[in-house]
Every structure is written in structure tokens, then in C-alpha cells.
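Sequence, please.
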């Protein structure tokens, strides 16, 4: 008896080569705004240089951040851990994420 073939799981939406729109969708709101600003600046540079490498670098860097932020609870734990390392003091559980992020040096 052979096992039924299992369908391939769909790739995560943030797979390599994800579109800028998908990257923006998975970022936290504040970071989504920062991404759009950097993306637009890179597009402006590309218009004059006719070189897309800067655009691709911006998208890839932010894609990595979006992957982390796609699990908000894990992201918050990571930022809290980084803030504790940077400041030498643990972050309070009720500390706003933007405050913790600043303490983490981001």
C-alpha cells in the first residue's frame, strides 16, 4: 500500500523575490511607512541611473525584516531580548514596542 501523495505546501508569501507590495503588507505599520520611503528614494535613483540594484537591495533588506515581523509575538520577544542586551536591563512586559525598539538600538 502506498501513501497518498501529499500536496506541496504553498510557499510563504515572503519567499525570495517577493514583490514590494507583499513586503509592505507584512511589515508593521511604522516600518511599512519607512519601507515605502526608502523604496521610493531607490526608485528615484534608478530613474536617473537606469540601475535597479539599489531598488532590489531595499526590497531584499526589508523582506528580511518582514519575515521577522510576520510573527508579531516572536518579533516582540526578539526586540525585547535585543533591548535587554543593549541596555543591560530587561524590558517590562507592558513597554510599548516602539520604546523597546529604540532601546534595542534600531
Amino acid at each position: 500500500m502506498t501513501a497518498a501523495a501529499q500536496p506541496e505546501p504553498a510557499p510563504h508569501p515572503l519567499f525570495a523575490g517577493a514583490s514590494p507590495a507583499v513586503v509592505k503588507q507584512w511589515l508593521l505599520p511604522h516600518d511599512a511607512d519607512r519601507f515605502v520611503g526608502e523604496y521610493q528614494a531607490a526608485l528615484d535613483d534608478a530613474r536617473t541611473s537606469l540601475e535597479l540594484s539599489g531598488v532590489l537591495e531595499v526590497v531584499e533588506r526589508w523582506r528580511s525584516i518582514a519575515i521577522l515581523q510576520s510573527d508579531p509575538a516572536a518579533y516582540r520577544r526578539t526586540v525585547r531580548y535585543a533591548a535587554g542586551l543593549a541596555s543591560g536591563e530587561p524590558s517590562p512586559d507592558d513597554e510599548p514596542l516602539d520604546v523597546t525598539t529604540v532601546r534595542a538600538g534600531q
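Residues 29-49 form the longest helix (21 residues).
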